[in-house]
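wait is this the right file?? whatever heres the structure
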């Protein structure tokens, strides 16, 4: 998104693409979700039978329609004021996926690049795991991409899945 649309983006653990707050604009003082990655996997016995990955990007959604998507949703159109050619965006996105896939096949892990772009780290967050909701500071991600969350009592929680909300300090 940065090269094509000129938007500064960051990642929210584990899989959301965000646009940073703009303190000079009162209506834009929080993170806004531009895109997300969804995965579905199937296990047979002890082996992975399949994995399906989908990427959703809010491209030309008008600002007035964003509230119907989610309270923190944004789009390239809303951020730039310009329509984006979706075929051009798709080609750029697929080119980036291919480059990272080639790097992975070459033995290079995407972990360091991914972790470096996480807006979540060092921030106060609330994480909902399905079984519980935990509030604390996101300290790091480990080599398995689990989020390490430290609660105010000093306990370090290792989260492998969950929904994270960035909180104001």
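ok assuming it is, sequence goes like this
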């Amino acid at each position: 998104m940065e090269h094509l649309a000129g938007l500064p983006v960051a990642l929210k653990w584990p899989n959301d693409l965000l646009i940073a707050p703009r303190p000079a604009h009162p209506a834009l003082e929080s993170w806004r979700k531009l895109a997300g990655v969804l995965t579905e996997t199937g296990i047979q016995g002890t082996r992975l039978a399949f994995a399906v990955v989908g990427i959703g990007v809010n491209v030309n959604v008008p600002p007035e329609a964003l509230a119907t998507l989610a309270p923190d949703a944004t789009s390239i159109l809303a951020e730039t004021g310009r329509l984006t050619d979706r075929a051009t965006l798709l080609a750029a996105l697929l080119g980036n996926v291919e480059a990272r896939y080639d790097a992975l096949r070459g033995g290079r892990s995407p972990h360091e690049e991914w972790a470096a772009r996480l807006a979540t780290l060092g921030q106060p967050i609330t994480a909902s795991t399905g079984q519980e909701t935990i509030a604390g500071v996101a300290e790091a991600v480990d080599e398995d991409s689990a989020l390490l969350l430290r609660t105010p009592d000093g306990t370090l929680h290792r989260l492998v899945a969950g929904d994270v909300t960035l909180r104001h300090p």
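The chain has a mean pLDDT of 89. so i think its the right one actually
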